[in-house]
Amino acid sequence: MRISASTETDTRAGEARAKSSSSQTLLRGLDVIEAVSDGTISLADLAAVLGLNRSTTHRLAAALVERQYLNFLPREGYVLGPKLLELGFKAQQQKDLPRVARPYLESLAAMTEDTVHLGVMDKERALYLDKIPGRRRIEISSRVGERQPLRSTGLGKALLLDETESRWGELFDVEEAIARGGIDRDTWLERMRTYAEAGHAFDLEENEDRIRCVAAPIRDVSGRIVGAISLSSAAQYMDDRRMESLPQEVRATAEAISRELGWREDAVAVPEPKPRSRRPARS
Questions:
Q1: Are 116 and 108 in contact (CB under 8 A)?
Q2: Residue from 175, 179, 228, 224 nearest 200 by CA
Q3: pLDDT tens digits, 219-238
Q4: How far is CA 99 from the centre of its chain?
Q5: What is the pTM of this model?
């Protein structure tokens, strides 16, 4: 049996309409979830936000409740459901920081020809997770897997930008025994205030002779600092003028990595409680 050209055209048109309708339903379902993400919302308010009638809105929301993407609270409205928590946890597990950051680190190193580091806070030290060597003929002693001081490294300072001044002071004192010296407490605190306001930090040959660096924090979906990157080179390649021009590039790279972790520019950082360090009692 031969199928006429008009029949084939009608069939294709019907399939296209079905696909368009399915896509529209999916997008509307996602709009529902995004609207509910702002807080508990009633059916009437949800319909108004979406620009849909109550019947269509109820149908979409009911399907999401059935699949546990939403919960319905009697006399209150819709809230996000446990399925989203489960998916969010799985998504976070899949965001391995070194893997996510690596292409951005390589790009920054290639663009600047300098050495790029990635690190996180670990037991009140900066733990180096990755290092991309630069193209210049210089040797930077850092190694992946080692822990460096917070107060003297640019990366360490970037990890501390959201901390309170009292916390800065504590960490400065904790590292007093291992510090290389050369900077007093008041000067260091003043610099940290400047760094926190600017959103980046410098290492002005404080951790290693003739080595300077610019560093910026990496943030997660909550806005909390979860890591940092630094760009390091010999002082001869990092004069004051270049040090002032590099922060924009370093921050842009850190922000790109942060967005991969779910961070948004309007996220508000929620500080994570940290145990206060204990000093041995004096005899």
A1: yes
A2: 228
A3: 998 899 999 999 999 999 99
A4: 14
A5: 0.67
